[in-house]
Design a protein that fits this description.
single chain, 14 helices, six-stranded antiparallel sheet, alpha+beta, about 550 residues
């Protein structure tokens, strides 16, 4: 540290670009070693990035806390949260731009595999953003010394040494993750697509927050759906949602969409105290909604859209601006092609003519004049012939009560089993009758050749001044050179790091020589493969990776 102190003093008053000299050597901070991944070229540029590592034994981390892969994920996430809090406490504003900043990726309620903090063998490795301070564009040595020789070591010491947190905190964190993984693994064995533990808190404090609502009514299963699962020696009771077609209904503002939102995010594990840490769902579950205006790259939507005026093809439907109904039809068929077994649908964000046609409209507009085949007419076919599961929030489309296997009514945030009541109202379930409709393809898929043919013309630098194809991402959009995709309505992305990850994976896939189907190209693991440490990345599913690729279009 003394050597670094002297080196920094020699940089005083020099041009900001002289910071690049720091890359030549590591920073030793007691038990920690820091190596520069990137050094910013300007005080107003994105912060520099430092790869920090330390032996777990030197930090007092017990081997049993990282004894297997699940525990390594839990430990890394636990340490990242401590680092994020400690960085925020030790950040100071020094000079111009980002000077004095210390930061790392800030995780939300979900526990994810990340490159921002991970366990590599017997070491803890973390990526820290460091704002190197300057006076205008001249190096101010004392400020830099304060950041690198005081604030950063204090941050690491406070966050990472086991003596600074209770052993029970990490043990309960690890235990919680192990229980969630075990619950999810038992779903199939018990014929369930989802499980909501009794005592869960599903409402959030606001529509834009993931913080549990204080004082909210805790979830309790109705007797007819209550199951008991035994995991790791613990018996956990809650509501099991069985395979098949489940309709969640009830009056407005009684908790229908809140329950569905908890299910769609329970493909991920949650931190203790989130309220949803004992809610788990089929890990392939995918939310299918209307996306008016989306790009479609040749999806077989004929089973739901027989023909369009002007003879437009629906066996390989291509458009740069899909309607609400055709976009939702494409979303459903694509998700099946990407390995989804459970489809989540909310009436509020669906195209009505995709979901239903009532009797009066059927009499007024004859079937041979209507290209759309509503999902309600084919959903039993998809269940019984394809084995697909549906969990649907329905408030007005009562036709779905007649095709449901399970009906749950939400009343004042409490679920009530109403399957028999709905059956009495609807009468006998109609038999499947294809009416000469187009058949579902035995296996539908996009070929990589097809995807690459449509996208590679745009796979070039975004402008004449850029060198190479860069991955740019925010919560609304991913850009790969001249290609971009709107991801704002892919609601199962939970952080920007996941979106960057699928962007980097998509670029790798498009530049490779992979052939065969898109499903094979984006098989599990594709979205979380290893990439350079120039950006914070988080594990994402193959379903989101495939969905993003199929939304890609060349910028105008």
């Amino acid at each position: 540290m003394k050597e670094l102190h002297i080196k920094l003093q020699r940089l005083h008053g020099k041009a900001y670009g002289t910071f690049n000299d720091l890359r030549k050597r590591s920073i030793i901070m007691g038990d920690f070693q820091g190596d520069w991944v990137h050094i910013q070229g300007d005080p107003f540029a994105p912060p520099s990035r430092l790869r920090v590592s330390a032996k777990l034994s030197d930090l007092g981390i017990l081997p049993e806390w990282y004894a297997n892969d699940v525990r390594k994920v839990a430990l890394a996430d636990f340490m990242l949260r401590r680092l994020a809090m400690s960085c925020a406490q030790h950040t100071t504003s020094l000079g111009t731009g980002n000077g004095g900043l210390l930061a790392t990726a800030e995780p939300g309620a979900e526990i994810l595999v990340r490159n921002s903090c991970r366990i590599e063998g017997e070491k803890l490795v973390a990526l820290i953003q460091v704002g190197l301070p300057a006076d205008a564009r001249r190096i101010e040595a004392e400020w830099v010394i304060q950041v690198l020789c005081q604030s950063l070591p204090d941050t690491l010491t406070e966050a990472c040494y086991a003596l600074n947190f209770k052993a029970t905190a990490i043990e309960s964190f690890v235990r919680s993750l192990e229980v969630q993984r075990a619950l999810r693994e038992q779903l199939s064995e018990h014929g369930l697509v989802a499980f909501v533990g009794n005592g869960s808190v599903l409402p959030r404090s606001s529509g834009t927050s993931e913080i549990p609502l204080r004082g909210a009514r805790v979830f309790m299963s109705p007797p007819g759906l209550q199951v008991e699962l035994e995991v790791l020696g613990e018996k956990i009771t809650g509501m099991g949602i069985p395979t098949g077609i489940t309709v969640i209904t009830g009056g407005g503002f009684h908790g229908k969409s809140t329950l569905l939102r908890a299910l769609e995010l329970s493909i991920y594990d949650h931190v203790p105290g989130d309220g949803r840490e004992r809610v788990v769902c089929d890990p392939t579950a995918f939310k299918v909604r209307s996306e008016e205006g989306r790009q479609v790259l040749g999806t077989w939507i004929e089973p739901l859209v027989r023909r369009l005026p002007g003879g437009k093809e629906t066996q390989r439907f291509v458009t740069t601006c899909a309607s609400g109904s055709t976009s939702q039809a494409a979303n459903l068929v694509e998700s099946i092609g990407l390995g989804v077994k459970t489809l989540l649908i909310d009436e509020d964000i669906s195209a009505v003519n995709f979901l239903i046609r009532d009797d009066r409209m059927r009499r007024l507009i004859h079937a041979d004049k209507e290209p759309l085949i509503p999902l309600v007419d084919r959903i039993r076919e998809l269940r019984e012939q394809r084995g697909l599961n549906f969990v649907m929030v329905i408030g007005a489309c009562g036709d779905y009560l007649g095709v449901a296997d399970t009906v749950i009514v939400m009343e004042d945030w409490e679920p009530r089993l109403a399957t028999l009541e709905a059956a009495e109202i609807c009468g006998p379930r109609p038999e499947i009758n294809s009416h000469g409709w187009p058949k579902w393809p035995v296996r539908w898929e996009h070929s990589m050749d097809q995807v690459r043919k449509q996208l590679t013309p745009g796979l070039r630098p975004a402008s004449s001044v850029e060198k190479g194809i860069k991955v740019k991402a925010n919560l609304q959009r991913v850009q790969l050179g001249r290609l971009q995709a709107d991801v704002s309505r892919l609601s199962q992305f939970v952080c920007i790091e996941q979106i960057r990850s699928v962007g980097a994976a998509a670029l790798s896939i498009l530049k490779s020589d992979i052939t065969g189907s898109l499903e094979d190209a984006v098989s599990p693991g594709s979205a979380s493969r290893s990439f350079p440490e120039g950006m914070d990345l988080a594990e994402a599913r193959s379903q989101e990776l495939g969905a993003m690729l199929l939304r890609m279009a060349e910028m105008e």
